[in-house]
Known about the structure:
The protein has a single domain (6-189, 207-220), classed as 2-enoyl-CoA Hydratase, Chain A, domain 1 (Alpha-Beta Complex), CATH 3.90.226.10. Helix content is 46%, strand content 16%. The chain has helices spanning 30-45, 81-84, 90-99, 115-122, 138-141, 148-157, 159-168, 174-179, 192-204, 208-220, 225-240, 243-253, and strands spanning 6-11, 14-19, 51-56, 61-63, 104-108, 111-113, 125-129, 133-135, 172-173, 185-187. A six-stranded mixed β-sheet has the order 1-2-3-5-7-10, sandwiched between helices. Strands 4-6-8-9 form a four-stranded mixed β-sheet. Strand 2 (14-19), helix 1 (30-45) and strand 3 (51-56) form a beta-alpha-beta unit. Helix 4 crosses helix 6. The longest helix is centred in the N-terminal third of the chain and has 16 residues, at 30-45. The N and C termini lie far apart (47 Å). O-succinylbenzoyl-N-coenzyme A is lined by residues 24-25, 27, 64-69, 86, 88, 90, 111, 113-115, 118, 136-138, 141, 143-145, 149, 252.
Amino acid sequence: MELTDILYEKKQGTAKITINRPRVYNAFRARTVREMIWAFRDAWDDNQIGVVVLTGAGDKAFCAGGDQKERDSKGYDGSGGLAGGIGLEVEALHAAIRNIPKPVIAAVNGYAIGGGHVLHVICDLTIASDRAIFGQSGPKVGSYDAGFGSAYLARIVGEKKAREIWYLCRQYTAEEALQMGLVNKVVSHENLMAETEDWCRQILEKSPTALKMLKYSFNADSANIEGISQLAMGSLAMFYNTEEAMEGRNAFVEKRQVNFARFRK
Ligand code: S0N
């Protein structure tokens, strides 16, 4: 597959996927998601690969979620409606990260916001730069991930904190994320990749079958969220086709204050 939106490299047992759209803080569009799915499947099939690293290009962002400039009332690729869903294959991407039988490490090098935050939440492990910033922004821009983005997040940080994260759309420092158990380790920005490589080395020394079975076991307990996610993405496709959702998206793109007051009925 020709790759325009991600970088993909394989070295000494590690596959590294870098979202490469730094001008939009590595926000993803339909093509970006398709390329990431392809890369995860390639790493899945490659017996030389024992661990996958997901990161973002540049030093500003890991990923800022769905590209709001590519989104309209018909979703992210104009296909819209029930058949086209939201126009992003995010459920397939989430499934690839969860189901690849190898550990996936998010190396968070900056903003992890919205759908970008959900990506690191789903990864097995997260190592954060001390400049990383975490948060959900869906209710600000007329969107939500009511599947893994909320239900699985609550398992990690607890119900109260997960509700705070989504309802207030605050941003959290790497240290705050560490305190709430949202990341495994915080390191200086300069050491992010060296630390991540060290974790990869330690993983690669371990039994691949044991790691695979452990991952399946961890996943089994939250597997029901996949069904919730289907409902969530189905409802999101319908929600995108409303004035309320477009108000959120338009306010972000037009760089103005959002006004949802008229939708409180
Ligand atoms: C990341 C933020 C907080 C950074 O703020 P800052 O430092 O003030 O920089 P900006 O000037 O805002 O941004 C720099 C440039 O990057 C562009 N940009 C940033 N994010 C996006 C984006 N998501 N889409 C398109 N462009 C983006 C800016 O426009 C700017 O470029 P210029 O100067 O040329 O205009 C801040 O940028 C921010 O809040 N970004 C938006 C984050 C966001 O709302 N993401 C989507 C959130 N959606 C959800 O949470 C929905 C749930 C979900 O997870 C999901 C589920 C399924 C499918 C999709 C999604 C999804 O993520 O939408």
